[in-house]
Design a protein that fits this description.
Blueprint lengths: L1 E10 H8 L3 H6 L2 H9 L4 H19 L11 E5 L5 E5 L1 H7 L6 E8 L3 E9 L1
Helix pairs in contact: 1-4, 3-4
Length: 123
């Protein structure tokens, strides 16, 4: 059963500006995410924008937005084939009441100017 869906689109140039400040980076991304974004094959700004869109889409799918938790509480990583995976913090589990074993499907894409992501939560 689908519990929620969410989508988000962001301007890559906007994310590039705010990530360079450092404060936004520390507020929104785990250290592991920052390392992955800075080391991947495309520009770091594209990666950060894709991850931010993914975090927003998950928050929308949860039906809460970023209430009671921060973007950093949603971690995006990839499996060995590059498929994006979502890990929710204990804070999200506690504050939203969502089950630990929900399945979150996520897709992230970006072009030259925008990054987009869609999340589907299945339980």
């Amino acid at each position: 059963m689908i519990l929620g869906i969410g989508t988000d689109i962001v301007e890559i140039s906007r994310i590039a500006k705010v990530v360079s400040t450092g404060a936004f980076l520390r507020k929104c991304y785990t250290n592991a995410e920052a390392d992955r974004c800075n080391s991947a094959g495309v520009t770091a700004a594209e990666n950060f924008a894709g991850y931010f869109a993914a975090k927003e889409s998950v928050a929308k799918a949860l039906g809460t937005g970023f209430r009671g938790f921060s973007p950093k509480d949603i971690e995006i990583f990839h499996d060995e084939l590059g498929k994006p995976i979502v890990n929710l913090s204990e804070k999200i589990i506690k504050n939203t009441g969502i089950a630990k074993d929900v399945k979150i499907h996520i897709s992230i894409s970006h072009g030259k100017e925008h990054a987009v992501a869609m999340a589907v939560i299945e339980g």
